[in-house]
Recover the amino acids of this structure.
């Protein structure tokens, strides 16, 4: 299993090396945006979007980059998080099967982006839990993404 994971990581490393430098510079910003969202959950503040952007791009930054990050945060973070939240009506359904039916109906109405987040996260979580501690969350994300792209998608094409 360790050799299999090592091969996957080597593949992911090769993929990362192919990513354009401009995109590589945005990766830490994306991670910091998510961290800013987490921080906002822990300590609500006045202008949350401004705080998330400030956390993602501290110090002096190119106005073009700030505008791009601001546009993404404003357009996607509220929309995605809104679509992911579960309302009281669903939370109060006692029967787990009926509750899951209601959740899935809501996912079906969500944007493709939200659906991708849900499915990707769910696959990673299930793999992590099924591995009984052998795989970390990070490994589970990489492996599930690799498997989906390299096996499932290729099988669908054939």
């Amino acid at each position: 299993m360790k050799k299999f994971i090592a091969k996957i990581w080597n593949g992911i490393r090769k993929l990362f090396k192919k990513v354009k430098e401009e995109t590589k510079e945005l990766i830490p910003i994306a991670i910091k945006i998510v961290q800013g969202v987490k921080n906002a959950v822990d300590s609500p503040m006045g202008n949350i979007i401004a705080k998330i952007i400030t956390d993602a791009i501290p110090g002096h930054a190119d106005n073009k980059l700030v505008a791009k990050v601001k546009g993404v945060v404003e357009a996607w973070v509220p929309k995605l998080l809104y679509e992911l939240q579960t309302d009281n009506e669903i939370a109060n359904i006692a029967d787990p099967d009926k509750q899951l039916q209601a959740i899935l109906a809501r996912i079906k109405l969500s944007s493709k982006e939200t659906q991708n987040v849900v499915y990707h996260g769910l696959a990673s979580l299930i793999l992590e839990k099924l591995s009984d501690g052998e795989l970390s969350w990070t490994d589970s994300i990489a492996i599930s993404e690799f498997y989906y792209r390299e096996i499932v998608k290729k099988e669908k094409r054939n």
In short: The two ends are 28 Å apart (CA to CA).
